[in-house]
Amino acid sequence: MAKKSNSLQDLGGFVFSTNDSFSFDAEESSIETLPPNQQKLEAHLDKKNRAGKVATIIKGFEGSDEDLKNLAKQLKNFCGVGGSVKDGEILIQGNFRDKIMTLLVKEGYKIKRVGG
């Protein structure tokens, strides 16, 4: 038996409006991805809430989710490890901060090392 879901996103994000002058725009505004030389990324090293395991986190990407996922895939392939994209951040398993920073600088990104 299929599980019922009652979340607002399952309904398309729009349920009902009492505003007479409300107009529903089905199209979402697409976010323009900044070119690499205008991106200001931060490379963090984190091991909180990860059972003592280290992860490299890249923050500050401005652009579409699709471009963020493509950049994450490129970084994961380059490092040969797993990772994910969550809340606009790229999470790479392991301490690959320096390796990732050199790749991103070659790609034209502005990246800053944050933390120890």
TrEMBL record:
Stored Pfam families: SUI1
Gene Ontology biological process terms, A to Z: formation of translation preinitiation complex; regulation of translation; translation reinitiation
Top-rank taxon, per record: Bacteria
Record keyword Transmembrane helix present: no
Single GO term (MF): translation initiation factor activity
InterPro entries: DENR/SUI1_TIF, SUI1, SUI1_arc_bac, SUI1_dom_sf
Cytoplasm in keyword set: no
Family: Belongs to the SUI1 family.
Keywords of this entry: Initiation factor, Protein biosynthesis, Translation regulation
Occurrences of domain SUI1 (ranges): 48-108
Name this protein carries in UniProt: Translation initiation factor 1 (eIF-1/SUI1)
